[in-house]
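Priority: medium. Attachment 1 of 2:
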């Protein structure tokens, strides 16, 4: 099985332009705001600058203002965007909007694309994706979905409680997963609904305090209390929501990996610069064996993560499910990125712990990725199951 790792020349050019844009425009803003954008003016100014630089929305089709990159192309460009915590926000490729755009391009009806995808791709609005629920509802096991949608005259009534809904504060709409048949635990029977933010029966209950803060719009608890939506709000077909979720979740796991790999590289660069400059016990840190080992291990983790991401993206571009390759890449990358940032902070010593560099912020941001988009333990369980089933055939 051969995998071509060389990016298309156009992709390579876009990646280089993205790298320049992030370093010259985004990084200064990130440092000024401590890695967390809390105002619309920061978001809109960065996105306007990305449009002017010709690097905005690399993932969506040209008809919606993007560059139409496939998954392998995204891997190269998203990594460069991820070199800053605010890079994905600037390029309009941050979660959950990026995954929602991907889903809408594939599943939405033409009128839904005009109403929801086009303004989302342009950065005129933001969105959220409401699947996760408080225990014992949907989480690592989506089949536990408890939120229900019942038919009413002219549409559907949604009732349920969601939580950890990223970006819900200020989102113009959410894509809500609700059970339209069966009961919690059943592997089918879910439907996706497009719910506008001005629906009075969709209520933002609270912001959930979390370790990470850089994902714009926070993580919220959201209540659907007799939330009525028209038939035109159904995204795709009724009872096909779990199948559509896989259309979104596999690629979204990889784009998360791409973005966080950029932060791993940034952390390594900070650490190497410090190791070359800092002298202790008569030597530069970079000349000490224990520091060299950490620098080398970081390079190994970064290179291995990139290779696994590219292999998974190659399979997705071929139209394969990529279930095993994306699970492997997500599990390894989430843990490798943590190791890289942690080692980088250790190399920098007290400087790494301080607010003078952003390594402490990066550490807090990357830690939840071992839980988001499926905990490492869930992915390992699924990986092992697939291997055992294949061997038993």
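Attachment 2 of 2:
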């Amino acid at each position: 099985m051969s995998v071509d790792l060389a990016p298309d020349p156009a992709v390579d050019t876009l990646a280089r332009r993205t790298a320049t844009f992030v370093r010259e425009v985004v990084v200064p803003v990130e440092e000024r705001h401590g890695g967390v954008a809390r105002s619309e003016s920061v978001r809109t100014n960065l996105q306007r600058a990305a449009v002017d630089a010709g690097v905005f929305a690399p993932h969506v089709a040209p008809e919606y203002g993007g560059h139409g990159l496939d998954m392998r192309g995204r891997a190269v460009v998203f990594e460069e965007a991820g070199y800053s915590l605010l890079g994905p926000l600037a390029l309009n490729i941050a979660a959950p909007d990026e995954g929602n755009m991907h889903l809408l391009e594939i599943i939405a009806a033409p009128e839904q694309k005009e109403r929801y995808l086009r303004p989302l791709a342009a950065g005129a609005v933001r969105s959220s994706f409401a699947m996760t629920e408080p225990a014992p509802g949907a989480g690592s096991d989506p089949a536990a979905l408890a939120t229900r949608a019942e038919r009413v005259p002219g549409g559907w009534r949604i009732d349920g409680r969601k939580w950890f809904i990223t970006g819900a504060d200020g989102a113009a709409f959410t894509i809500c997963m609700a059970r339209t048949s069966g009961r919690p635990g059943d592997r089918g029977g879910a439907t996706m609904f497009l719910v506008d933010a001005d629906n009075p029966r969709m209520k933002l209950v609270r912001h959930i305090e979390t370790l990470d803060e850089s994902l714009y719009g926070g993580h919220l608890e959201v209540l659907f209390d007799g939330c009525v939506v028209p038939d035109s709000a159904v995204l795709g077909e009724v009872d096909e929501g779990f199948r559509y979720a896989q259309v979104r979740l596999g690629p979204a796991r990889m784009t998360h990996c791409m973005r966080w790999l950029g932060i791993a590289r940034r952390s390594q660069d900070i650490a190497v610069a410090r190791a070359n400059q800092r002298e202790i016990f008569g030597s530069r840190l970079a000349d000490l064996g224990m520091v060299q080992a950490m620098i080398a291990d970081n390079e190994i983790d970064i290179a291995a993560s990139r290779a696994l991401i590219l292999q998974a993206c190659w399979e997705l571009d071929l139209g394969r499910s990529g279930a095993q390759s994306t699970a492997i890449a997500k599990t390894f990358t989430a843990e490798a990125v943590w190791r890289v940032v942690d080692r980088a902070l250790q190399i920098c010593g007290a400087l790494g712990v301080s607010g003078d560099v952003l390594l402490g912020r990066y550490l807090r941001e990357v830690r939840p990725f071992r839980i988001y988009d499926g905990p490492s333990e869930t992915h390992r369980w699924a990986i092992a199951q697939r291997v055992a089933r294949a061997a038993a055939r």
